[in-house]
Amino acid sequence: MQTEFLSALNRLPAEERLQLLHGAADELCGRDGPRLCRQIVATQSLHEWQDTFRMSRDALAQAAQGVESTSGSSELMECVAGRRAELKAGVLHATHNISDVRLSDFNWVLKLALSSDRLARLQTPLLSLGLNVEGPGVDGYHEQISLEMGRAELQSLVSTLEQASKVVQQTK
Amino acid sequence: MEELDGIIIHSLRQCGVDIADEVNSLREFTAELTVEGVVRCLRSIDPALGNAIATTLPPGMSARFRAGTRLAQACQDLGYTREVGYHTFLYGSEVETRNLLMFLVERLPRETMDSGSRPAGKLAVLQASIAARIREELSAPWVPPFCRPLLNSWQRPGLACPFRTVPLSVPGDITDPMVHITPEERRYWEGHLKLAAFQVTGVGSLIMSILQRNANEVATAAAWETEWSTQGLPSHLSADEFRERKKEGLQKRVFEQMRLAVSKANQMTAQQQTLVNEDLQQILQSFGTESGSEELLKGSRFTHTEKLVFQKEPDKQERQLPRPSEPVITSKEEQQAAEKLREEEVAELRQKLDELTMKAESLKEDSKCLQAGIAQVSQEFGESEEQLTEQREVARVRQRTLSLLPDAGNSIAKLHAMVEGSVQRIANLSGQWEGHRAPLLQKIRELRQLQLNQEEKLAWKMTHLREVRDKRRRIAVEVQAKEELQRQLISEYDETAQDVSRSAYTQRILEIVGNIKKQKEEIGKILSDTRDVQKEINGLSGKLERTFAVAEDLIFKDAKTDETARKVYKHLAALHENCGQLIDTIEDTGAVMREIRDLEEQMEAERGREAVTNLEKIAGDFRAIRQENSLLTSQLKDS
């Protein structure tokens, strides 16, 4: 695996190796990876490039975890040394998300329902809550759960979440 | 007077009276406006008193009269001493209205005058602003969706974008000499790190990412601060040591949890064994046993995959079963036969696999036993080696003793000598030891004392440090609260800045006071002048009296003898009398002039009260009341 990665990396022109590695590191840290640029496509096929990219990402992740690579390239070492803390945080974040599904993001919108199909004048505040749930892995399972709640329901939800948070605090 | 009117109108507006902007003085007040102002003031001063009275005048004349009477009564209840009645409200003059309103405005509670009674705090301000904003948005008219992009309002759909963030990478502070920067980091920051604006692409938004990063750092610093002050400081450790110890504790804890989870998972798999496919189960179990002790972290990952596989398994089986493996088979029987064959094969293979795994298990057990045996044997070997060396030592000593036996007496004497020498040497050594020991003991004692002192000092310093930290935190909180207050006060000040300014009022009042002082001085001067003139008049009249008396006396003496003298006397008397009359007339004229001036003033006052128009109004109102009364009597008769 390591030799494969090295040979794939060495096939790239020298000035693009570090660029590719930094792009892979960006993706490890949670940002968008590099865009395909024309020079890369000119020197490699799309599949090759994707493979190289994936391999460099894995190699970076291993290096950030402290696994000593015997035949690490100088570019890899340079990249890891330059942004060790950031990479470590990214890898840790991935390790935190070890469970089957997890909450990755949420969004809320407060609405005021003026009327319904039964009542001409309702004036009830409603909260629509969107929960983004993700599975393990980079390209794993994605789902968006949408809830709409009235005041009482929201309060019960908040109190439940507070209890859960208390339990989590206790295990610290 | 204009300024006074301005103050009164401003206060009335604050009480909630709707006064048009062009009304600048009380002369322009209508009866309705006066009544409304008075009622609002009454409500502010005494809600129980004011709420019983309506703010508007009723249409009927008699009802108006009653409302006016009630208002006058309420004002008198509040302690208004001047004359007040229904006519003050219905036909009131400017002066009366001003007096009444001045009295009421002075009685207004301070809270309604200055709006500084709102609850303090950032949260309250925020909530108030939110409420104001929501109220404003609710009062805005609904706009159809296709018109919304044209408006710059909250109804535009583009404003409600989700809060999506990406982690940003930011270079460290190069100017800070405390932070060590490696050359690799420096090269990365200089050559490859993009600007924050270009790090955000796709779903994330720059401002939100920056906000989140900042909030993250603030929260981390706060959490560390509280933890360090509650747990870190009392533990007498440096920050790094404390972090290290916490890390160890957490790792231990994670380790425990993992072990528990693994054992639980293993129990669960044992229970589920009958339910699920067995060979897969065994593979998983082998995973579990392999990773159980050494790589606990990975083990738990395997158990997770295990769970996932269990969930997915049924449908996997379903998927596997109906899939046509050999598309060439056409007839049903052949297919069945082939399937049967395959099933048999599968069963066979499965059996084989079971056997093999069993064998592997047993072999593993055997190897474990053998390893245990090896360990035991090596331990026994070590023990026997030790025994051997001991025995050899004993044997050597015995050999020496045996070699000494033939020459016993000599040997004994030698031995005695040796023993004595040894005793002496021991005594010598002990003497030396004592000599060395005493100073060392002394030193130990001193050092101990020193240590105690230092510990005390340290404890004192720790308490001091804690106090200082507490103080610092308190002061920080105080500063924050004060800044909060300052900001709030500034905003309040900005709000009230448009009102009539206080300093202008005070300046005006001071000017008025100065004017009054000047006028008082002038009045004093005039009074003294008057007194001087009076004195002069008195002196002159006294002189006149005396001169007249002397002249009369002299002439009277001559008058008895001389005819002309008698004539002169008569003329003198007439002159005196006429002059007296003249003076009286002048005095009378002065009095009349004064009276005229008084009357003119009274006339002016009456004219101010607009007696004629008021009289006409009163007459009209009286007619209206009569009409109402006649109407009521006719109604009474009808009914």
Automatic annotation (TrEMBL), chain A:
Q: Where is the COMM domain?
A: 102-172
Domain of life where this protein originates? Eukaryota
The protein, known as: COMM domain-containing protein
Q: Which Pfam families match?
A: COMM_domain, COMMD8_HN
UniProt xrefs under InterPro entries: COMM (IPR017920), COMMD8_HN (IPR055184)
PROSITE patterns attached to this UniProt entry: COMM
From TrEMBL, chain B:
**Which parts of the sequence belong to the CCDC22 coiled-coil domain?**
129-608
In which residue ranges is the amino acid composition biased (Basic and acidic residues)? 309-321
Which species?
Eptatretus burgeri
Q: Which InterPro entries match?
A: CCDC22 (IPR008530), CCDC22_CC (IPR048348), CCDC22_N (IPR048349)
- Report the GO molecular function annotations: cullin family protein binding
Q: Which family does it belong to?
A: Belongs to the CCDC22 family.
Q: Where is the CCDC22 N-terminal domain?
A: 1-109
Q: Please state what the protein is called.
A: Coiled-coil domain-containing protein 22
